[in-house]
Design brief:
Length: 376
């Protein structure tokens, strides 16, 4: 077959795969075709000549010891040393005897087998390239069009060359989609199964989806000026996100919220009205946990870093705020900080500290031990 390399390059271009993968597919197709025409225990190699742009197939037989077990297991691929010396006295152990295999001599049978094998292996390379392409995009936002919704409420989304599947558990509570809708979702996995083939598993409930949406809406996050330390969500209801910056002239909360809340509202709208609390991160657990429990005002806090526990003293008028509706506030604070938070009700009514410039100053302290973690 003349100029086979040109044909391989044409296949690679048509199927949108690399030339190297097209060559691999062609070589495997030739070897499998040769085995089908002879025996599965035979060994073949394919040599492609880049100068003449042609190919050749060689049957390979390896010389082994007379008592080698492979002689009985794969008689078409191995020959004993004593038998090989009958042909050539200079042959040694490990030598390979090669004989050209002419595929064209087998006529239409060879052509039909080669066509099926080539089609199969090219398709495998297409799937492999797609798998690698989308695997690199795991954790990023995909945009697609809803194709259909099945009886189990799984939403099928067309994304590029593949289909994405948004299952009911990965969808925000209360969301409804219809065919033709354009939706955004986070790529969770690239999967292969016998029923769906190669497909993308999508989610709209992951905290990472919230982080990616924030990065899209807030340039300071996208540029790395403001960093997202962590996020916690009860999808469709409420979320907390911890932010920090190393630049003293940048307000991370103000940047995330935007003028009149335009940035945070855009993210909330995408999440079906999810309420989002932005919290400034602190490396000091006491401060971070206290901020995470906002809008509740705490009296005091004791942290056990080894066991990841925090005991918080709080007045009765603030306890409901700390817990939140159905316990949502304390759950999110615990998820965000990684601490198991316990509340201890104490007597009294909480009051916020007076702002600077008020009638009396708050008592100052010279104890700086709580700031030690900042300088580690």
């Amino acid at each position: 077959m003349e100029k086979i390399v040109d044909i391989i390059e044409a296949i690679a271009h048509e199927k949108n795969i690399t030339k190297e993968h097209a060559i691999e597919a062609f070589q495997e197709a030739l070897i499998n075709t040769a085995k089908k025409l002879t025996s599965q225990s035979s060994t073949f190699e394919v040599v492609i000549n880049p100068t003449s742009r042609t190919y050749s197939i060689n049957k390979v037989i390896t010389v082994v010891k007379d008592d080698d077990e492979r002689l009985s297991e794969m008689p078409d691929s191995y020959i004993s040393l004593s038998e090989a010396k009958d042909f050539d006295d200079s042959i040694e152990l490990g030598d390979q005897l090669k004989e050209e295999f002419i595929l064209e001599q087998f006529g239409r049978t060879a052509s039909a087998n080669l066509f099926r094998e080539l089609e199969y292996h090219v398709q495998r390379r297409i799937e492999q390239d797609l798998f690698e392409k989308y695997k690199e995009q795991i954790g990023t936002i995909m945009i697609g069009i809803v194709n259909r919704i099945d009886a189990e409420d799984n939403t099928y989304v067309e994304i590029g060359e593949l289909k994405g599947i948004l299952t009911l558990r990965n969808r925000i509570k209360g969301e409804k989609f219809k065919r033709g809708d354009t939706i955004k979702a986070l790529l969770r996995y690239v999967s292969v199964d016998p029923h769906h083939g190669l497909f993308l598993e999508l989610t709209r409930t992951s905290p990472k989806f919230l982080e990616q949406l924030m990065a899209r809406e807030v340039p300071e996050i996208a540029d790395g000026v403001v960093e997202i330390v962590g996020a916690a969500r009860i999808p469709g209801e409420r979320a907390k996100i911890a932010l920090k910056t190393d630049q003293s002239n940048v307000d991370p909360i103000g940047a995330a919220v935007g003028v009149k809340g335009v940035r945070i509202n855009a993210v909330s709208d995408e999440l079906n009205g999810e309420n989002i609390d932005c919290i400034e991160y602190s490396p000091i657990p006491e401060i971070f946990i206290t901020r995470a429990l906002s809008p509740a005002i705490t009296q005091s806090i004791k942290v056990d870093q080894a066991n990841k526990k925090a005991m918080i003293n709080i007045t009765s008028d603030q306890k409901a705020k700390a817990i939140g509706k159905s316990g949502i506030n304390i759950r999110l604070a615990s998820m965000l900080t990684g601490y198991n938070i316990e509340l201890n009700e104490v007597a009294g009514i909480a009051e916020r500290q007076p702002e600077s410039g008020a009638d009396h100053e708050a008592e100052k302290t010279t104890d700086t031990s709580a700031l030690a973690d900042l300088f580690k």
